[in-house]
Amino acid sequence: MMSNTKKADPYRRLLRWTIILLVLLALLATAYVLMDKYQQGERDRAAQRIEEENKVLIEDYNKRRAEFQASQQTTGQTKPLPTPKESGWDVLDLSDFPVKAERDVAATREEMLLGGLLLVNRWHAMPPDFTLAEPHLKSIGTETSFRVGVTGREVQVLEPVIKALDAMIGDAKKAGLESYIVRQGYRTATEQTEIWNKELALYADRYSGDALTEKARVRVAYPGTSDYHTGMSVFMDVYNRNDSELNKMAFQTTDQAKWMNEHAAEYGFIFRFPVQGYPDASTVDKSYITGINLKDMDVYRYVGIPHAMTMKALGMCLEEYIDYLIAHPHIAVYQDGVMKYEIYRVPGGNEDATISLTAGAKEYSVSTDNMNGLVVAMVY
Q1: Would the pLDDT of 73 be above 60?
Q2: Which helix (H) or strand (E) holds 271?
Q3: Rounded to an integer, what distance in angstroms lies between the CA atom of residue 377 and that of residue 370?
Q4: Is 301 within 8 Å of 185 (Cβ atoms)?
Q5: How many helices (H) and strands (E) does the chain have?
Q6: pTM for this predicted structure
Q7: What is the DSSP letter of 80?
């Protein structure tokens, strides 16, 4: 007797699974495209909002400057500058007073990208012309002859960052503190994409769509929006092959971290992602504005000495500081009643420009903030 049981056709089964997989791949590709369009739309809307805000600021600044000049002509009196405190650091708003320009100098877009204030976070992506700055990316180990410890020769940051980092680690050594190591530096978009995809894979069986994206973003920045892309941030730690006890310690519990938190601004560095009680118990939470809420992100960002010291005096993170400069486009920073820095922001920073300097400025830096702003810091 012949059996009535039909044997499954293996080729038909293979074809069926192939079709299912193709459909799933098509759905995933569609989801990726939609997510990418959503991200781009968010960036475009943010850029438009910033451009509109800048227009309002320009109009307001011009209006106040015209009123100031008119008042001088009608009254013959000059409005007095605000008086700084006699001791300690003090930041004064001089937005009602024009910069006393004595000379103009040319500033290139390349200089602006190296200036320290390039803001990159989940709301502000890397500018496509960062390629102008890429030739200045160098190996920390090679450039410092490994005076600054690194996990490998491939760890890179921009040249101004290496110079500042070398000086800071050298002075820490003079203070009796060694064994610093830089674990991470500059990341390419390709490297960030690899890390992002690995993070997505960890949660793909429990989340999907926007929920999956937000879950991955807890620990990993979306490609193109990582602060590591700027070449100005370093992830710090301690390591000594002859000291196993030190190697077990979390960085912020070490004397090395305490010294660095106290002195980093003197070399142009800030702690990039402050959260409540981290890196120290007195730290005020800034995660609502940085977008990062992690207590193991020991990332220090180079912004230049004038900006770092001003941010320290104001108690601000990078995002807050740029917002502050948008609202107060001309400030003066004093130490013990003596002006140390004069900082001003004007719309621009996206192309070569001419900037104005005062007669007393010994040094200056110029930076794009990636928010359609050009920031000039003068050192006295």
Answers
A1: no
A2: strand 269-271
A3: 16
A4: no
A5: 11, 14
A6: 0.81
A7: P
